Amino acid sequence: MDNNFYKLKDNIFNSFCDYIKSHCGINLTKDKRILVEGRLQKVAKILKYDNINTLTSDFLSNKLLHHHHNAIIDAITTNTTEFFREPYHFDFLKEYILYQQKTKKYFEIWCAASSTGEEPYTIAITLSELQNQFNFSFNILATDISEKVLQIAKNAIYESDKLKKISPEILKKYFMISKSNPNLFKIVPEIRRLIVFDKLNLTSDFYFPHKFDVIFLRNVLIYFDDNMKFSILKKITNFMHEKSILFLGHSETITNKNLNLIRMQNTMYKLRL
Predict the structure, then answer these.
(1) Which CATH number is 25's domain given?
(2) Residue 97: is it exposed, middle or buried by C-beta count within 10 angstroms (0-12/13-18/19+)?
């Protein structure tokens, strides 16, 4: 393959970055160029393009079929996730629910960048374990911009390599081994029915008829510039109440004093009253 397959021309790269920022809010800087080219190379092979410049040009000029267009969006917006990632968040979540359930028996939870489902399923498993001892119920809304990852999450089937952080007891209780492939595991129906998956672009306007008790917005703000971070967080605070908690990723902090949020602990925030 010639160099056009592996490298984007400067003008095409810049136009692609502008498109992704305007439509997805993601800020693709020059240091992300190799990552972008690598992900486009994978799509080009699948769609049988002989170079990524032609593929990207067709994408920018709306010459691709809808699902091919979405394949590129998915390739750029899909990020790493895993079960029980940053476990101290789930320990804190349990403490929060245990304290609040003394006076509150129903909790609304939102995973705002749920990816392939590991995070919302971890939350559901964590709280289901608490329900063995305490009387409360909950619902989880899990959203993402990518239709592809949402479908993976809805299918709830994971390879054994994805389950390394899960204890044997939890694995046995909440996962079913595939009859056709012993390396595949499916989340049990009792957990799946606790989660509603839906498509949502955090950079667009969105509305919910209620506020959330818990919001997970982890490891997604790092992909936006400061203005977009502020815009997203400002909208999210509209759906928090005085006792809500917001979880961010381990490398994310809120420094803008114009946001009505204060830090409780590292990467955990609540509304400033």
Answers:
(1) 1.10.155.10
(2) buried
Residue 255 and residue 131 share a domain: yes
Q: Does a structural domain hold residue 252?
A: yes
Q: Are residues 98 and 180 in the same domain?
A: yes
Whether residue 142 is found in the same domain as residue 114 = yes
82 within some domain: no
Q: What three-state secondary structure class fits 107? A: strand
* pLDDT tens, residue order, the chain (273 aa): 556 678 888 899 999 988 888 777 778 888 888 888 888 998 888 888 888 899 998 888 888 877 788 888 888 876 678 899 999 999 999 999 999 999 999 999 999 999 999 999 999 999 999 998 899 999 999 999 888 899 999 999 999 989 988 999 999 999 999 888 989 999 999 999 999 999 999 988 999 999 999 999 998 888 888 888 999 999 999 999 999 999 998 878 887 778 889 999 889 999 987
The Cα–Cα gap between 76 and 220 comes to 13
- Candidates 86, 144, 89; CA nearest to 115 is 144
Domain count, the chain: 2
Q: Would you give the end-to-end CA distance of the chain in angstroms?
A: 60
Contacts of 217 (CB under 8 A, 6+ apart): 112, 113, 232, 233, 236, 246, 247, 248
CA-based torsion, 231, 232, 233, 237: positive or negative = positive
**Domain of residue 61, residue span:** 3-77
Q: Residue 200: how many CB atoms within 10 A of its CB? A: 18
* Continuous segment of H or E residues that includes residue 111: strand 106-111
**Dist. CA 78–CA 32, nearest whole Å:** 14
CA distances from 42 to 52, 96, 195, 212, 217 (A): 9, 42, 31, 38, 28
